[in-house]
Design goal:
The protein is α+β, with helices and mostly antiparallel strands. Helices cover about 30% and strands about 35% of the residues. A hairpin with a 2-residue loop joins β17 and β18. α3 packs antiparallel against α4.
Length: about 375
């Protein structure tokens, strides 16, 4: 006999089973969702991991502590080293016959700079020859007087007079020969050229000033130099004006970097060797001088240059290369190495700069390793 109550009983038994399975699946899915959310929350957005290829695109630099310096920039000019510039004068008067050198030429010591026709030389030679003849005669007279004195035919006064005359003649010859040596002329030179006077270079160097030409008249004893020779291959000066408002923080001995506008990729380093003591009333500045090595012979007198003076702030600070800094959202950041290939974006406070370095107040410690070249690349990963 068919039982009408059997089917409801089976349906009632199935419903609890389905409900349990459905609840288990829901709990499992919720647990997975929670696990996934937890994993996302644990990822640090400031941390970056690089692969092997990316690591090859960057460089690493180490922060270090050093004396903090600031930079003050000035415009300057290159000048010859006046401490080693040699003026050239003429010891005789005369007319310039020849000037075989030009402004800017490099000359060797003893090289002829100009040839003068001078009556001073011919007069000197005439006087010298006359003095030598007088000396020869005085010596003969002295010998004769000595013989007569021995024979008691002359008095002692005659002998003393002859000796005095001989010494005077010797003195005259010596004086004229000394004058000729001062002229730089050989006393045994041929008479055909005894009125020609050569002005020669007293040292090796460049002609940086030239004040005579062929046909000019040169006067002995003039205060104006005819040539100025400077050996700019060794050292030059960089001159710049210090403003009154900057004088308190700039001192002799401060390190300086000089870049000539003609050679923007070349930096010359030196120290302030002198600061003027007289203030220019028109500009309220004093002139400062830096001695630079010019071994490559690139710096020429008159070139304009940028002068950076490094001013000591008398405090220790953490220094990093400027290329480590990344400016983002009105703030500076660095990428600090946390592991071999992992880096952390770190906010920093910058206290000051030089041409190549930045001084950090907060965010970086001594010996921290940072991304240098490629810091912007890492920040963008």
């Amino acid at each position: 006999m068919y039982n009408h109550n059997a089917t409801p009983v089976r349906r009632a038994a199935i419903r609890p089973t389905v409900s349990i399975v459905t609840l288990s699946l829901a709990l499992l899915m919720a647990g997975c969702a929670k696990t996934e959310v937890r994993k996302v929350e644990e990822v640090d957005p400031n941390k970056t991991d690089l692969n092997e290829y990316q690591m090859k695109q960057i460089t690493l630099d180490t922060a270090h502590v050093e004396e903090e310096r600031s930079e003050i920039r000035f415009g300057g000019t290159i000048s010859m080293d006046m401490d080693h510039a040699v003026p050239v004068f003429s010891f005789v008067s005369g007319k310039v016959l020849k000037v075989p050198v030009a402004m800017g030429d490099y000359v060797k010591k003893g090289q002829i700079l100009a040839v003068l026709m001078s009556s001073d030389l011919s007069n000197n030679l005439t006087q010298l020859e006359a003095a030598k003849s007088a000396l020869a005669l005085a010596k003969k007279q002295l010998v004769a007087t000595q013989e007569l004195y021995k024979a008691k035919l002359n008095s002692q006064i005659d002998l003393l007079t002859a000796e005095s005359a001989c010494k005077a003649a010797e003195g005259a010859v010596i004086a004229l020969e000394t004058t000729r040596k001062t002229y730089g002329v050989d006393s045994s030179a041929a008479k055909s050229s005894n009125n020609l006077y050569n002005i020669v270079a007293p040292t090796d160097g460049y002609i940086v000033a030239k004040n005579l030409n062929e046909g000019s008249i040169v006067l002995e004893g003039t205060s104006n130099n005819l040539f100025l020779i400077s050996n700019m291959k060794s050292k030059v000066w960089a001159l710049f004006n210090i403003f009154e408002s900057d004088m308190y923080q700039i001192h002799e001995g401060d390190p300086v970097d000089v870049v000539a506008y003609a050679y923007p990729d070349k930096t010359y380093s030196g120290k302030i060797s002198n600061i003027g003591t007289v203030l220019d009333p028109a500009s309220n500045t004093v002139v400062a001088r830096v001695v630079l090595n010019n071994n490559d012979n690139l710096l020429k007198s008159g070139l304009f240059a940028s002068v950076r003076v490094h001013v000591d702030k008398h405090k220790q600070s953490v220094a990093i290369p400027k290329e480590c800094l990344v400016f983002c959202d009105n703030q500076y950041y660095v990428e600090k190495q946390m592991g071999k290939t992992s880096f952390l974006k770190t906010k920093v406070e910058v206290d000051g700069y030089t041409a190549t370095s930045a001084y950090i107040g907060e965010g970086v410690a001594d010996k921290d390793v940072l991304v240098g070249k490629g810091s912007s690349y890492v920040l963008g990963q």
